[in-house]
Each structure stands twice: as structure tokens, then as C-alpha cells.
Amino acid sequence: MKDYKKLLMWQKAMDISDMVFDIYEDLPWQKASELKGQSTRAAISIGSNIAEGNSRRSEKEKLRYMEIALGSAFELETQTLVLQRRHWSPKKEVIVLLKAIEEQQKMLVGFMDRLNA
Q1: Which of 3, 36, 54, 97 is the most exposed place for a label (fewest CB within 10 A)?
Q2: 100 φ/ψ angles, rounded to the nearest 5 degrees
Q3: Taking all residues of the chain, what is their mean pLDDT, rounded to a whole number?
């Protein structure tokens, strides 16, 4: 069995989860309570699906979990853009998070391309 914790894309997903929790920790709950729940679930879903997909034996199954992780990354990007539009979080933190999400998306797409090859 492969150790998913050694995968750079899983490690990046964990970093993204930390960033999301840090951003929402400083926001008043009245402003972002619903968005916080959705964002933290999406962030956790990225790493969780990478880990679960890594446990699958067939390339087709691995690909499916990577697709789910990618979908969660796009969901999180959208929720982070809402934060940015509402000016609910420091601009710098949001920009760093958006950049990390974009890198994660590229890593997932690259991995999926290799699985499809």
C-alpha cells in the first residue's frame, strides 16, 4: 500500500485546510458561519479524496476520487472568491489561499492526465 501522506498534492491539500481554518477563525460568526461550514468541508474533502483515491487499486477508481477532489477544490475556490468579494477577510490571506487552491487544481489535473494516459 502506498503512503498517501508522502504525496505532495495531499500535503498541499492539508496546507489548504489549515489556511481555511485560520481565515475563518478570525471572522465574526455572524458574517460567515454558513460559508465557514461549506468551506471547511470542501477543504477537508480535497485531502480526504486524494487519500481515499490513493487506496484504490484500479486507475479508473483513482481517477474518480481525484475528480471529486478537483470538484471540491473548485467549490472552495468559489467560496473563497465570495470572501474576497465581501471583503470579509484580509486581502493578502485570501490571495495566498486562492493561489494555493489554483496550484492544487493544477496538480490534480496533471495527476488525472497521467492516470488517463
Answers
A1: 3
A2: -65, -40
A3: 93
Return the C-alpha cell found at 10.
495531499
**Separation CA 54–CA 61 (nearest Å):** 9
Given its phi and psi angles, is residue 79 left (phi above 0), alpha (psi -120 to 50 degrees) or beta?
alpha
Q: What's the pLDDT tens digit per position in 27-63? A: 887 777 889 999 999 999 999 999 999 999 899 999 9
Look up the CATH architecture of domain 4-116: Up-down Bundle (1.20)
The grid coordinates listed for 111 are 495527476
- For 69-90, what is the mean pLDDT? 95
